[in-house]
Specification:
With 577 residues, the chain is of the alpha/beta class. It is 46% helix and 22% strand. The protein is globular and about 85 Å long. Bound molecules: ligand C2E and magnesium ion (2 copies).
Length: 577
């Protein structure tokens, strides 16, 4: 036998063994080369989805079968695995089969060949999930084995957890959590209603838990009446608490066990992923400690392992709830800060800055509540409100006869708000409702927003520009910049961050940065606003460096609308200086 035919035969027998192993495990498989885009599907996979082997070409053959509602998520998990070079991924999603039916599958992949160190050839395994998976009641699971409810075992859970620890080993903050859920009274139900009722109960509970989680989260049965959950992509501890609370709430509904309604409750222990964990067992130990404490606390208790983190998470949740109510009760107020011309100190713009008139805590500056709002969709609610209030104020000023002197008003837009799919439509609706011309408004966005989602941002900016909104780049110099976007994106002005202005007098470097930014901006036909000008010396230096406009306490502090009116009234404005 030639060397070549020996190699070919060894490859064939390796493939045969792989097929046999997959068949035994009830899995189908395919292989995908991320560089060439080629994919080869096993005959079993083709048979599973109902495709002729000849018609299964490339990655698209698989992606076309992923349920449209799960597609974004699957693509994200795949993309994240490639980017993070984690070399494996794991996702549950639905597939649409050729006969029109939908099934849940567990897709797992690992890079098995990578010449350059990049994720290149992916070995993908798919397992069909039990029929009851994704259903609201557990009654269709009768065909499942009593002892196996179809979830991963404790061993597999630990394997996933080890992988997750590795993935986040250099992450700062909390990015994942292990949540242990223990059923109260399970033993009692098992002994009084029988084991099959007990199994049905477990399947129902498992389904409810799975429903609360995202498809990429892992649920395992880690004890007779204990479930282990691994949830990832958290912003902080309060996200984990929220998941735990939702799970606990699913127990408020009775479980129907063959006609008999029973109520079960849960105790939940949570351990937050942190960098000091080296091994999966350590996280399990802490989640277990928290669970023990929860059992001591009584029915429906949720205990977070780390008390310091717990306090932080609880206080975040309470600020969130409080702010939500505050926005609804119109407790937000806007102050406006003038932006003036460096030539003659005439009014060039106003920046709307939000404050919270808290009924108990008094007047709060953005630093006290914006960071919390930024972590959730609350920032969108807040942002919408600020834009509405700004437009309403513009309408009032126009009505009061200030139309000619009223300059564009800048509104700060947070990243999360800006890239949301509904953002531009919502903005348009506000302009329409308040009957305000969009050219009376400028949006301030920061560099990070532009850099993180370049294509998406370009299309949003293009739509805003078509409407007539001005675009300003806020806090310029504090983020990481690729100067090429300044040219590509339709930006009108740069606001130089106040840290450069502050340092300018002691540090020649800062002055040089300002000089370069001004010259770059002017070459690109952008105007430059200096932020945080506090002294006449800073003002004259910035004028020498070529800045066009300035904003700062030297000229005016942010003030309520009534106080700003002096700037809009010709005779009084002249007296402002
Ligand atoms: P920013 O957009 O850079 O706003 C300028 C901040 O600098 C304001 O702080 C303003 O009061 C302060 N400032 C202005 N001149 C001077 C000065 O001469 N010296 C000093 N030391 N500070 C000066 P503020 O109002 O506390 O706002 C802080 C940040 O909060 C804003 O920074 C902005 O990023 C954010 N923010 C404020 N309102 C909103 C809003 O409605 N939505 C969003 N997403 N963010 C907002
Ligand atoms: Mg700003
Ligand atoms: Mg700024």
């Amino acid at each position: 036998m030639s060397e070549q035919s020996k190699t070919a035969s060894a490859e064939r027998s390796a493939v045969d063994r792989l097929r046999a192993a997959c068949l035994l495990n009830g899995q189908t498989w395919w292989v995908w080369n991320a560089i060439t885009g080629e994919a080869s599907f096993s005959p079993e996979w083709c048979a599973f989805v109902g495709l002729e082997e000849e018609s299964a070409y490339g990655f698209d053959a698989w992606i076309a079968r992923v349920h449209p509602d799960d597609l974004d998520h699957v693509r994200r998990v795949f993309g994240a695995a490639e980017l993070a070079r984690t070399a494996r991924f794991d996702v549950r999603h639905r597939m649409c089969l050729a006969d029109g039916s939908t099934v849940w599958v567990h897709t797992r992949a690992i890079v098995c060949a990578s010449g350059t160190g990049d994720a290149a050839e992916w070995m993908v395994l798919q397992t069909e999930l039990p029929l009851w998976y994704g259903e609201n009641d557990g009654t269709t699971g009768a065909e499942l084995h009593d002892s196996v409810i179809g979830l991963p075992s404790r061993g597999l859970f630990l394997e996933h957890l080890s992988h997750t620890l590795l993935k986040y080993s250099r992450a700062s903050g909390v990015s994942f959590a292990v949540i242990m859920v223990d059923l109260d009274r399970f033993a009692l139900i098992n002994s009084s209603l029988g084991q099959s009722a007990g199994d049905l109960l477990l399947r129902t509970v498992a389904t409810r838990i799975v429903d609360v989680l995202r498809p990429a989260d892992i649920v395992a049965r880690i004890g007779s009446d204990e479930f282990g959950l691994l949830v990832e992509d958290l912003n902080d501890g309060s996200d984990a608490l929220r998941v735990a609370r939702r799970i606990s709430e699913t127990f408020s509904e009775a479980v129907n066990l063959d006609g008999q309604e029973v109520f079960v409750s849960s105790c939940i222990g949570v351990a937050l992923g942190a960098t000091h964990y080296q091994e999966a067992n350590e996280v399990m130990r802490d989640a277990g400690t928290a669970l023990k404490q929860a059992k001591k606390n009584g029915e429906n208790a949720i205990v977070l392992f780390d008390q310091a983190m717990y306090q932080q998470a609880v206080s975040r949740l309470s600020v969130e709830n409080d702010l939500h109510r505050g926005i609804e009760r119109n407790e937000l107020v806007l102050h406006y800060q003038p932006i003036i011309s460096m030539n003659d100190r005439s009014l060039h713009g106003l920046e709307a800055l939000v404050r919270w008139n808290h009924p108990e805590r008094g007047h709060l500056s953005p630093a006290a509540f914006l960071p919390v709002a930024e972590l959730s969709d609350l920032i969108r609610m807040l942002g919408r409100k600020v834009l509405e209030m700004t437009c309403e104020q513009i309408a009032l000023w126009v009505e009061a006869g200030h139309a000619d002197r009223l300059p564009p008003i800048s509104v700060n837009i947070s990243g999360r708000q800006f890239v949301h799919a509904d953002f531009v439509d919502e903005v348009e609706a506000v302009f329409r409702r308040t009957n305000v011309d969009p050219s009376r408004v400028a949006f301030e966005v920061t560099e990070g927003v532009l850099m993180d989602n370049c294509d998406l941002v370009a299309s949003i900016l293009a739509r805003l520009k078509r409407m007539g909104v001005h675009i300003m780049l806020d806090d310029f110099g504090t983020g990481y910049s690729s100067l090429s976007y300044l040219q590509k994106l339709p930006i009108d002005s740069l606001k130089i961050d106040r840290c450069f202005v502050r340092q300018m007098e002691e540090d020649q470097g800062s002055a040089e940065i300002i000089r370069s930014v001004v010259s770059l901006a002017h070459n690109l036909s952008l105007v430059v606003v200096a932020e945080g000008v506090e002294t006449p010396a800073q003002e004259s230096r910035l004028r020498d460096l070529g800045c066009d406009f300035a904003q700062g306490f030297l000229f005016a502090r942010p003030a309520p609308s009534e106080e700003i009116e002096v700037w809009l009234t010709p005779t009084v404005a002249a007296k402002a200086f």
